[in-house]
Prior knowledge:
Layout: E1 2-4, E2 16-19, E3 23-25, H1 37-43, E4 64-67, E5 77-82, E6 87-94, E7 96-97, E8 102-103, E9 112-115, E10 127-131, E11 135-136, E12 140-141, E13 155-160, E14 165-177, H2 183-186, E15 194-205, E16 210-221
Parallel strand pairs: 6-9, 10-15
Antiparallel strand pairs: 1-3, 2-4, 5-6, 5-13, 7-8, 9-10, 11-12, 13-14, 14-16, 15-16
Amino acid sequence: xxxxxxxxxxxxxxxxxxxxxxxxxxxxxxxxxxxxxxxxxxxxxxxxxxxxxxxxxxxxxxxxxxxxxxxxxxxxxxxxxxxxxxxxxxxxxxxxxxxxxxxxxxxxxxxxxxxxxxxxxxxxxxxxxxxxxxxxxxxxxxxxxxxxxxxxxxxxxxxxxxxxxxxxxxxxxxxxxxxxxxxxxxxxxxxxxxxxxxxxxxxxxxxxxxxxxxxxxxxxxx
Length: 222
């Protein structure tokens, strides 16, 4: 699973990052009926609605800039358990590969990546983003192969580097054409605390070797 952005990952000196993210690209799954979209949107209070779109000449989401979390106050997730879909996966801190301008998700499809320039598990505001592969032609099914099966009320547990397990409850599952996903909402550092899980879905394009859509699951502290 990768996150591709338009522009570049700007200088991170002095604890400041600027990132323009335009497209999420991953591996695929079957279409899923959306549930809980209104509730997921309501969690992101204060987050602007995307404005520019394809063909406007500008980025599809605003640039996010702000202080990077410091190691002393950030609790990275290191393990994710989702009993409903039989997932126990290692979580690795990742950023953006400056060579490809993509979310640098672990290449092993049984592992998943936490976006380390966003909030950690201790946050009292914003979206903790974890992304992963659905499958691979070489490795088979990935950790998020069944992510589309999650429904409202399902529970999951994210364990932090501090050893503390934190329970969450799923409130929404949504599917977007990858060029239309509101990334500013899902990568926001404001709004209520929530966990955002992202992989891919929809039909596979054999020419581009990508799937058309993204599956996004939103969960809140239980």
